[in-house]
Amino acid sequence: MNYFTSEKRYSTVNEFYRQTFGSKVYKITLNGDFTCPNRDGKISYSGCIYCSESGSGDFAGKKEDTLENQFQAIKSMMENKWQEGKFIVYFQANTNTYAPVVKLRSLFDKAITLHPDIIGLSIATRPDCLEEDVLDYLEELNSKTYLTIELGLQSIHEETMDFINRGHDLKTFEMAVKELRNRNINVVVHIINGLPGETKEMMLQTTRYLNTLPIQGVKIHMLFIQRNTQLAYLYQKNPFPLLSREAYVDIVVSQLELLNDSIIIHRLTGDAPREELIEPKWSLKKLVVANEIDKLMRQKNSFQGILT
Hints:
Layout: H1 13-21, E1 25-30, H2 67-79, E2 86-91, H3 101-111, E3 118-125, H4 132-142, E4 146-154, H5 158-163, H6 170-182, E5 186-193, H7 200-210, E6 217-222, E7 225-226, H8 230-237, H9 245-258, E8 264-267, E9 277-279, H10 286-299
Parallel strand pairs: 1-2, 2-3, 3-4, 4-5, 5-6, 6-8
Antiparallel strand pairs: 7-9
Helix pairs in contact: 3-4, 7-9, 9-10
């Protein structure tokens, strides 16, 4: 089953939520004050080279605030634009299963009860931070709410993963997906386009690989360079080519054409806070990028999965 609309020739997460929950669904991003094994010395101290000081949770709530206050603050901002809808609480910053189960339970059990219109929970984590007791707790949590685990893959190419200091291999990622799906937990995978040294064909190989996995969704990101990251240091010392908006749109459309149409598209690009972004500046205009993707798909009379 796909979730296309008259405007979107791919399975959009908005349409999926509407058909599944009967209304618009919004994500409210909370901060559980987690860290990461790739930054606290368990794997390394430097982390993935693109990761921001906030652990790529730049738009999350303030970790100093209670979950209740974080939720209410973000919900109030959303209500300035949208009056009705249901909510998914989203833990994004750093590695959100990298803690004892007692901490996970205290945060996640509370998060799903913050408001009667909360229908789900999304947890972003690393595939090497899913120990057996954590998986067992997530299975329990999955029986209480609509649970999604977001796993960073970024690329299937080992040379790329080494360069970006990912800190785990493809086998670890595959095992994490297998263990989650054995417990019937939904999995959304993150990939990044434009990583240094990768060609369009390499990015498409990563996309083809996704079709071999029992996953439910994907987030496609543009590589952007954010201040105070290892990537920014490398770029300023020795600038490397970044994708143009036109090249990025072309790659994403090709990826959509390859992806099984049952895989829900949760994101087609990403952005950094304006004041933190070095390049590419075009990544700030997410709506323009999405419109260009729709335009190219119409021009090609194409749709998600046409090449599968």
